[in-house]
Design brief:
The structure holds two protein chains of two kinds.
Chain A lengths: L2 H4 L10 E12 L2 E12 L3 E5 L6 H8 L7 E6 L2 E2 L5 H6 L2 E4 L11 H8 L9 H15 L14 H14 L4 E4 L8 H16 L3 E6 L2 H4 L4 E6 L2 E8 L5 H9 L16 E14 L2 E10 L2 E5 L6 H9 L6 E6 L2 E2 L5 H6 L2 E4 L3 H5 L6 H6 L10 H14 L16 H12 L6 E5 L7 H16 L3 E5 L3 H7 L2 E6 L2 E6 L5 H8 L2 H9 L1
Parallel strand pairs in A: 3-8, 3-9, 6-7, 7-8, 13-18, 13-19, 16-17, 17-18
Antiparallel strand pairs in A: 1-2, 1-4, 4-5, 9-10, 11-12, 11-14, 14-15, 19-20
Helix pairs in contact in A: 4-5, 4-6, 9-18, 15-16
Chain B lengths: L1 H5 L10 H13 L4 H25 L4 H13 L4 H24 L7 H17 L8 H30 L3 H23 L29 H18 L1 H11 L1 H7 L3 H28 L10 H11 L4 H25 L4 H27 L1
Helix pairs in contact in B: 3-4, 3-15, 4-5, 4-14, 5-9, 5-10, 5-12, 5-13, 5-14, 6-7, 6-8, 6-12, 6-13, 7-8, 7-12, 9-10, 9-14, 10-11, 10-12, 13-14, 13-15
Classes of the chains: A alpha/beta, B mainly alpha.
């Protein structure tokens, strides 16, 4: 079996449509993840799928791979309509999805992972045969992977190449790559795009989900989604320039859910929170100062260093390099009570992992981080918690209710009630409105603005650009572990969008 | 790598593999509400006695007369209550330690080894030349203290291995239990052997023996166990460390991010569990045996796991379960000869209790989810 013969049944003409998705709609409860989206994949093309977080890119790909099914619309693969959205059936028909989180067995070697995905018989092939199968594939497609060591010990790039080899081993004609370059270094990403082009030239069709506009140049056509709707459909890449795509992704007008905050004053030059030359994993040499009463918004696409900034600032993980200080006093890692005593409030991105203990009572959760050595009796603790719950409007059965019984918005208000006590000097707010309904999100934003009015310096890591535009005094864009900015009001939406999509980096390269 | 940061830091999560699996059992044991707090343990004991009755019938005896004899053994025999209290003492002490650890979802099963190491250390100290002539109260206190320290160290080793290297605490405490038994065998044959004795055992404890409780045939160690119960109760409900233990059990990542490093709590509960088990070892030797011998390992460290689970990881529950378990053992022992039943009946019934408790908890969880 070799590629050329196996691809013979598909006409390599660039007009052949390998997959056609029409008016695909997918709803999850009340939210519409996809609203009448079209996508056409031709043989021999690389199709870029662009969009901000939550635009529906991954949902669309999951449907095409049979991992999810649409509520409305039709999908055709190789000219045949898809009736059953079943991953096994679509794999048979030549669709392969390489997900963001790899699905390799980390304790098995590369060749063993290959055999596991497509066994050749009841008995396992011997080590030499399976190694030969891996080598042959690796050579044919120019995707080198080390064999003989556990897949979990391979580099991220190698793991991804192994995922690709596994898809190619199954003779996939439609390859869907969900943010393949997000985890790669620049040179690895370049190499991957080269491989993608050679795979396309053999008559396959590839979809590359990306946030990075630079990578779109290597593609043939582009589809842009925003909030589940298509903005650009099957457009030729040559017809668009970078700023067209950036404004298509980000949108040009505010969606209107966030009210513009009134004028606040902050005191420039009075550093409250200071980050100096911070390095941790993806983040390198990041410096930032937040002044008294200032709200600094960190915009950017997830996975560009947000989780590292959060981990280092909250003291959960010690940075490789650099320092964080509040009013000049350095923050000690690994001692959450000391962090709190210094006046750093922390609103975690995942409130159920780092913010709350769902199985414990509301009053216990309010005490987290400031439990006295000897605790008062339970009834007194409940009585003491009640005013806080009332003030922050945490709607629950009472202080004895379990935190796990709260709705998302009330759970977040509980975190705020604990963190935003008077005297907070700085607030690290990570996606504070994530998953909340507009009313709850607005309350949370109002409370944070109040904290800033009280003199706290607020570092707001956000995903919703509109929200940051409404509250921030300054916006910095986090892209590839580095900050681009500052962007000051009145904000240039397009410029921020371009920086979020990796344009910041590009501009620097262009100058250099 | 970014992926390690995106979820709760797995390196600080003490629950993995085997420990995680056992965790689901203790998780269910700490559910709130009447169903799991009272109904499950009571129904489990009754169900175990019922199956036990069927087996007694199969053996050719009358279950009513057997269970009647067991009850008479506790309630009418002159030493019934005293012997029950004596047998309950080590069970309660060790099980309180287990309960603290299990509340934090730290799964030590090393009580037996810590008990033995505690007994060896305490006996070694009080029988050593230069020590055995100390005034009696000081000698007793020194012996108990040595046992507490030794048990805590033995348990702390496993805790440290778990925190530092991610070693399964279930496995390392189990293995340290075997080593603890070897320490005992070496000690009585060689280390602290009584040179004048023909068989392998230590010198008599003499002045280090615990005084008896007036009017009974038990010793003051039982009072010690009774004292530990309210202290532990106060500790889990009113002390900061008790809060942290519960927080660790429910969400280690939130504890780490907001309150206190979870690894220190893991070490803390391991030290506490070891200290109580070590104390139990010396209390038993100084209160009952009078000298340390090869036969010191009688399995209190294992039975206490059942007591902790049956007592719903609550100090008061542990007290009730410990006395109940001791009563079953004592009642059976005193009636064993007249009934001519296999001695394995008690361990069979306790094993059945465990099975029914685990089953009942799983059932209660399912019913709760249905609602």
């Amino acid at each position: 079996m070799n590629t050329s013969s196996s691809m013979n049944d598909v006409d390599v003409s660039s007009e052949t449509v390998l997959a056609d998705m029409r008016q695909v709609t997918r709803r999850f409860g009340d939210t519409v993840a996809l609203d009448g989206v079209n996508l056409e994949l031709r043989a021999g093309e690389i199709h870029a799928l662009l969009g901000a977080n939550g635009a529906g890119k991954t949902t669309l790909m999951r449907i095409l791979a049979g991992l999810d099914s649409p509520n409305e619309g039709s999908v055709e693969v190789l000219g045949q309509p898809v009736e059953n959205f079943d991953p096994g059936e679509l794999r048979e028909r030549g669709v392969a999805l390489v997900q963001q989180h790899f699905t390799l067995v980390p304790t098995l070697t590369a060749s063993e992972n290959l055999i596991l995905a497509r066994p050749t018989g009841a008995l396992l092939p011997n080590r030499r045969e399976s190694a030969a199968r891996l080598n042959e594939l690796a050579e044919r497609y120019g995707l080198s992977v080390r064999d003989g060591i556990p897949a979990g010990d391979l580099s991220v790039g190698e793991q991804q190449r192994l995922e690709l080899l596994r898809a190619l081993d199954a003779d996939a004609k439609i390859l869907l790559l969900d943010e393949p370059t997000a985890v790669l270094t620049d040179s690895e990403a370049e190499r991957l795009l080269d491989v993608a082009q050679s795979l396309a030239s053999q008559g396959r069709s590839l979809v590359i989900i990306t946030h990075r506009l630079a990578e779109v140049a290597a593609c043939d056509r582009v589809t842009v989604l925003r909030e589940g709707r298509e903005v650009i459909t099957n457009g030729a890449v040559a017809d668009y320039d970078r700023s067209d795509l950036a404004s298509a992704m980000i949108g040009s007008e505010t969606s209107g859910t966030f009210t513009q905050r009134g004028e606040r004053s902050f005191t420039p030059g009075t550093a409250r929170l200071k980050i100096e030359d911070l390095s941790l994993d993806r983040v390198s040499g990041l410096s930032l100062t937040v002044d008294v009463g200032e709200i600094v918004g960190i915009a950017g696409v997830d996975g560009n260093g947000q989780s590292e900034v959060e981990a280092a600032l909250s003291g959960r993980v010690a940075p490789e390099h650099g320092a964080v200080s509040i009013d000049g006093a350095p923050i000690v890692g690994g001692d959450p009570r000391a962090r709190r005593a210094q006046g750093l409030a922390y609103i975690p991105s995942d409130r159920y992992s780092w913010g709350l203990i769902q199985a414990m009572e509301l009053s216990d959760n309010l005490e987290l981080g400031r439990v006295p050595r000897i605790r008062p009796p339970r009834t007194e603790r409940h009585a003491a918690a009640q005013p806080d719950l009332d003030h922050w409007d945490v709607r629950a059965a009472g202080p004895h209710a379990k935190a796990g019984s709260l709705s998302g918005g009330n759970a977040q208000k509980l975190v705020l009630a604990r963190e935003l006590v008077s005297g907070s000097k700085a607030v690290l707010a990570c996606y504070p409105t994530r998953g909340l309904d507009p009313e709850a999100a607005d309350t949370v934003a109002t409370r944070l603005v109040e904290a800033a009015e009280g003199g706290a310096g607020i570092l707001w890591i956000g995903a919703e650009l509109d929200e940051l535009l409404a509250v921030a005094d300054r916006i910095e864009v986090l892209s590839d572990g580095a900050l681009f900015g500052p962007f000051l009001p009145p904000f240039d939406r397009e410029a921020i969008g371009l920086a979020m999509a990796g344009g910041g980096l590009l501009n620097q390269d262009d100058q250099g | 790598m970014t992926t390690t940061l995106s979820t709760a830091d797995s390196s600080t999560d003490p629950q993995r593999g085997l420990d995680k699996w056992i965790g689901s059992i203790t998780e269910r044991a700490t559910q709130e509400g009447m169903l799991s707090a009272i109904l499950v343990p009571v129904a489990s004991v009754l169900a175990a006695l019922l199956v036990g009755a069927a087996l007694i019938v199969f053996d050719g005896s009358n279950p009513f007369s057997v269970y009647g004899a067991i009850l008479r053994g506790v309630f009418t025999k002159p030493r019934g209550f005293s012997d029950t209290a004596t047998a309950a003492t080590p069970l309660i002490l060790i099980a309180i330690g287990y309960a603290l650890a299990y509340r934090a979802r730290v799964f030590t099963i090393g009580g037996e080894g810590q008990y033995l190491v505690g007994a060896v250390a305490g006996t070694a100290l009080v029988t050593a030349a230069g020590f055995r002539d100390l005034p009696r109260p000081i000698l007793i206190a020194a012996g108990l203290l040595a046992a507490i320290v030794a048990g805590a160290i033995w348990s702390g080793i496993a805790g440290w291995l778990g925190v530092r290297f991610g070693a399964s605490i279930v496995i390392s405490t189990l293995m340290l239990g075997f080593i603890g038994d070897s320490v005992l065998q070496w000690a009585v044959r060689d280390g602290i052997r009584d040179p004048d004795s023909f068989i392998a055992n230590s010198r008599l404890l003499g002045d280090a023996e615990l005084p008896g409780l007036p009017g009974t045939t038990t010793h003051i160690g039982f009072l010690l166990a009774l004292l530990v119960v309210p202290i532990a109760w106060w500790f889990v409900s009113r002390h900061r460390a008790g809060f942290r233990i519960d927080a660790l059990g429910h969400n280690p990542a939130a504890l780490d991010a907001n309150e206190y490093p979870s690894s220190k709590i893991v070490i803390g509960v391991m030290l506490a569990a070891g200290a109580l088990a070590g104390l139990a070892g010396m209390v038993e030797i100084a209160g009952v045996n009078g000298r340390l011998g090869q036969e010191a390992s009688v399995g209190f460290g294992w039975d206490a796991i059942i007591v902790a689970l049956l007592g719903r990881l609550h100090p008061v529950g542990v007290l009730i379960a410990g006395i109940g378990m001791a009563g079953l053992t004592i009642g059976f022992q005193s009636s064993q000869r007249e009934l001519a039943l296999p001695s394995s009946l008690v361990s069979l019934i306790t094993a059945l209790i465990v099975i029914f408790v685990v089953f009942g908890d799983a059932l209660a969880t399912r019913m709760k989810e249905r609602r």
